[in-house]
Write a structure and sequence with these properties.
alpha+beta; Ubiquitin-like (UB roll); Resuscitation-promoting factor rpfb fold; 4 domains; 21 strands; rod-shaped
């Protein structure tokens, strides 16, 4: 009986040793770690995961070669440890007319990302996102490169010709009073470009020197007709007309103007040819409009001859009557 009790005691002692050993192993494998994924922190309890990679797979946290994990995936889990996972954001950079560049970044702002890529933004350039905003996954950052080309040229301004009438000059005669001077303008042309392509052209024209008009005066007076006399002396005529001429003789008589009725005095219609006008009549010679007659109306003229025989010889004719200057 005493021997049986001793054997039972040995068996219980062995069993207790095994139980305590198993509990010790289990308690030693139990770990509590903090998992920080992209700033989101949670506490994880595990018994059976030995490495960081095991824990992440168990928690459904996928990582790629572009992501940052600390400690590294092959590290053994340690109690109270914090595991950091920072997923890279895939960003496409479209810079001007260059092909898109796909990058993976862990930066906190677009500005820092562009600095890492050695991409600068000029004062006139445009970007579709704020520089202080964080990069987003599958984001496209578009940079529009803007520039302008300014050219300055000079162009002449043609002068105009100003014509002025002058009654003291004959028709067909002209005189330049002022030769005219071309003006000068400064032309500034600004061409704006976006990504190397012209999008807008502005032209600014400033007159530096005004043009001065050319001034020409032209005659309005009728040019006189040169009439040859019997004495071969030329006279100028301000006009000529064709008239119906008749003849009369009144020896010793007086005309309406008081002149004696003799060769060289003719009767006219004063509304057509004023009395006292000097005339030259083809086929008759020089004369003075010094008489009138009730039958001499309009385009008619009556020529005075010294004898009746001369009147009969002249008869009635169409003659050219010149107004002598």
């Amino acid at each position: 009986m005493r021997q049986f009790s001793r054997n039972l005691m040995y068996t219980c002692t062995a069993l207790a040793t095994v139980l305590f050993a198993g509990v010790g192993v289990t308690l030693g494998s139990y770990k509590t770690v903090k998992l920080n994924v992209d700033g989101q922190i949670r506490e994880v309890h595990t018994l059976r995961h030995a490495t960081v990679a095991d824990l992440l797979r168990w928690q459904g946290v996928a990582v790629s070669e572009h992501d940052q994990v600390e400690p590294v995936l092959t590290s053994q889990l340690r109690p109270t440890e914090t595991i950091w996972v920072d997923h890279a954001r895939e960003v496409s950079i479209k810079d001007g007319d260059n092909p898109p560049q796909v990058v993976y970044t862990h930066t906190h702002t677009i500005s820092t990302l562009l600095q890492q890529l050695d991409v600068s933004i000029g004062n006139s350039d445009a970007i579709n996102v704020r520089l202080d905003s964080p990069p987003m996954d599958n984001q496209t950052v578009t940079i529009t490169r803007r520039s302008q080309d300014v050219s300055v040229t000079q162009e002449t301004i043609p002068f105009q010709t100003e014509r002025q009438p002058d009654s003291s000059m004959y028709k067909g005669d002209e005189k330049v009073l002022s030769p005219g001077v071309e003006g000068l303008a400064k032309v500034t042309t600004t061409v704006k470009y976006e990504n190397g392509k012209a999008t807008q052209t502005n032209t600014d024209r400033v007159v530096v020197q005004d043009a001065q008009n050319k001034v020409v005066t032209y005659g309005t007076a009728d040019r006189p007709v040169i009439v040859a006399s019997r004495s071969s002396v030329d006279y100028s005529s301000s006009g000529a007309m064709t008239m119906v001429a008749t003849a009369y003789s009144a020896p010793g008589g007086r005309t309406a103007s008081g002149l004696p009725a003799q060769h060289g005095v003719v009767a006219v219609d004063p509304s057509v040819i004023p009395l006292g006008t000097r005339l030259y009549i083809d086929g008759y010679g020089y004369a003075v409009a010094g008489d009138t007659g009730s039958a001499i109306i309009g385009n008619k003229i009556d020529l005075c001859f010294d004898t009746l025989n001369e009147c009969l010889q002249f008869g009635r004719q169409n003659v050219s009557v010149h107004i002598v200057n």
